[in-house]
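Structure tokens please, single chain.
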Amino acid sequence: MTELLRNIDVSLFLWLNGKHNDLLDSVMYWASHKLFWIWFYVLLLLLTAVTLRKKTLLLLPVVALMILLSDQGSGLMKRSVQRKRPCHNEHLAGRVHVNGSCGGAYGFVSSHAANTFALAFFLSLLMGKAYRWLPYLLFAWAFFVSYSRIYNGVHYPADILGGAVVGMLAAWLAAKLYFYANIRLTSERK
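Here you go.
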């Protein structure tokens, strides 16, 4: 069964990774670049500050803890599982379109997926009722960044799925912490 799932994962990767062209090479390279998204993070921070006002100060350390948890959790899994990235897999040599740098040796789970899905899920939990469109935007962004990792040849689809699960688990824990701390602070002020 494990072999069947691995074969499906590799076949799906090769199919998705094989759909490339010059325009998408440029777009997907930048989609994977963390510094490219700073403008997006600033807009999210402004939206959060407008929506949550003073509670934003409580939010910032919780988000930092969440990203630390999702990023370090995904890194720990990479070192534990030790599944080679497709671009480092000698059995796939010559069949993988690598767009940019290949990165470290191991890819399960994707840290990009973990971090983007963590932020998407967390902010959806916090502000999804106030802005019904926000979860759609955030999850589209997380899927786009995650797909760029497959397109660029550095992650299998299962790496992305695993990263999304790790990130959303970190987001769920962070949301619990945020709501608990918010209730505690509110009750102490009364």
